Amino acid sequence: MDGIGGDGWSEEPPPLIQKLRQGLVVYQYYLDKTTPQSVPRWAGTLVLAAIYGIRVFYVQGFYIVTYALGIYILNLLIGFLSPLADPESEAGSDGPMLPTKDSDEFKPFIRRLPEFKFWYSVTKAFVIAFLMTFFSAFDIPVFWPILLCYWFVLFVLTMKRQIGHMMKYKYIPFSLGKQKYGRKKASAVSGTYRADRNTD
What we know:
The chain contains eight helices and no strands. It is mainly alpha-helical. α4 (63-81) packs antiparallel against α6. The longest helix has 26 residues, at 144-169. Mean pLDDT is 81; it is low at 186-196.
């Protein structure tokens, strides 16, 4: 029992660890404040992507890092466009399905990778790739047009498969909200009610 107090369990962590924890709390606080601000977040990421592009153009290298960044972002995009519950795996089961007719109950599209996590991962990837451009060990000489063509082929094939999946299971990866019904009927009914009152 004496060992519990003397083992360091009740002692305070070193000052460096405390400062690191405080820094992480402040970082998480400001990260949480950006959650509803999707347009400024993505604008900042586009600026970061432009800075990265200018850096790669200026250095004339790090094409393999850029290719890896493109593959990673493509992978994130697939997760962003895919539903959380895959309709293919649920087709044989009695699990929840996406609505296929107008008469079906409205179910919002829930992504496998939410928008905030998608943005955060893309931004982190650009920061890491930008930092990698300062180390010559990552500047592997390659013929960049081949990498660019290969990435475009991967992009086209992946998007073709994803769009085919969307058409097969009739879902759109963007939820526009629940449809509103009966607005025109309500105004038409109130108009006839007023006309009946005026005739009296």
